[in-house]
Amino acid sequence: MKKTEFITGSFIALTLVVLLGIFFFQALFQPSYEGKVMPVDNVNLKNRVSLHYVLKNVNNASKYLAMHGMRYFNNRSSVPSQTITYGKSKNLEEGSANEVTSIVVNYRGFDTLGEVTVLFISIIGITMLIGGVVEKKWIKPSLIVRTGSKFLFPFILLFGVYIFIHGHLTPGGGFPGGAVIASGFLLLLLGLENYRFNTKASKVIESLAGLTFVCIGLIGLFTKNSFLANFIPTGTVGLLYSAGMVSLIYVVIGIKVGAELSTGVAELKEGNKND
Amino acid sequence: MFITGIILITIGVTFSTLGALGLVRMPDLYNRLQTSTKATTLGAFSTIIGVGFLNPSWLIKTIVIATFILLTAPISSHNLARASHKWGIPLSDKTSVDKYDSKAGKEE
Amino acid sequence: MIILLYLAILVLGLSALCAIFTKDLLVSVVALGVNSLIVSALFFLMHAPDVAITEAAIGAGLSTAIYVFAIRHTKRQEEK
Fold first, then answer.
1. Who's near B90: CB < 8 A, 6+ residues apart?
2. What's the pLDDT score for residue A50?
């Protein structure tokens, strides 16, 4: 009874996968027409970020839409007259060179607050479910692994911090930086046999980071009449102290995500014996 | 600069190909692990350094990445071999000596 | 370039099928990690480096470890 159900279910799944594959391959074989595929050859890779930055600048783009209509977005070669150069332009609407960051943190900052809250709730769920699990025995790690993990841990931490501090300049940001920090703590948990992760301290750090995020939003609400509005002056595009609120919020998000994910991994590894 | 980069990339590609060949030809897990570690350390290392020589503005970053690979790949390979030995994966028939089984197993 | 994309999509489908149909859950988790890694490489080839970094760190690194810890607390073989 169960076996026939399994076979029919897998057959249906396989046919669905084949149909989806045919669908995707059909889309790949179609000739590309103008306006949908980005012209890669014309873009100089060094100016790529500042070229796209113009499209992101909302006030200019809406002005152009009123003047030229939708033709502006279809034809990439007609970039607006106000060119923005890397390292020279000042006092823009929003000063981050990486346009994904400015959308995630500035224009859709409230959604990011919701995402961080979802992660927090899932970690709380792991902590509640895993309580009372008995710790199993591990094989003792050898000398090479112990020395290597002790030596590599500071560099992995440094790389995570680099990713979220430079989030508004280079690809990356708070979430990848936090995940890299958590993988460093995972290396330490697996490589050293008598390492205990300090769960209480990480919970305190995580709560403080979340509080700071909400406080930055409230300062924006009181000064600019909008929650999470940018209240710090945006400097020159491409410098480290440039994007105003974006870099500040990404540091907070990086610390919060790193503490959350490493708490979850540590509780999954050693069980919850304290409470 | 250009010729050095081409030579380094050629060395890396050769070692990666030999590693893939050894993955097919070798009899048991430990020998396969040895050849694939050679491929990841020397192959990836010299390919990345060669890319840095081809484009000299990336050279510092590529040296950092290559150093990281050089540090991590042997450790992970060692740990894989040790864990599979403790798990009890059999050696091939042609193996004549197994020093880890008799000596270091009792020590820890 | 386009051949690379086809190869990546082929390996992606194979690893996904392996993750579904195998009985050993540890093999399934490793296949899922391979799947994540190829997805992150595809993201990078399609000019989305932000998503690629996130996928490589969370999908291939952390979630594999979390699944392995969950398998340690339960059984390794799938029941019929």
1. B28
2. 46
Residues of B in contact with A152 (CB under 8 A): 71-72
**Confidence band for A61, pLDDT divided at 50, 70 and 90:** low
DSSP, collapsed to helix, strand or coil, labels residue B84 as: helix
Helix (H) or strand (E) holding A151: helix A143-165
Q: Do chains C and B touch (3 or more CB pairs under 8 A)?
A: no
Q: Which of B71, B83, B86 minimises the CB distance to A152? A: B71
Domain segments of chain B: what residues? 2-88
Q: Distance between CA B79 and CA A121 in Å, rounded?
A: 35
Confirm whether C78 is domain-assigned.
no
Type of residue at A7? I
Write out the residue range of the structural domain in which residue C30 sits.
2-73
Q: How many domains does chain C have?
A: 1
- Determine the distance in angstroms separating the CA of A25 from the nearest CA of chain C, rounded to an integer: 9
Do the Cβ atoms of C71 and C29 come closer than 8 Å?
yes
Is residue C64, in this structure, part of any structural domain at all? Answer: yes
C77 phi and psi, to 5 degrees? -90, 145
Asked if residue C47 is part of any domain, the answer here is yes
The pLDDT assigned to A58 comes to 53
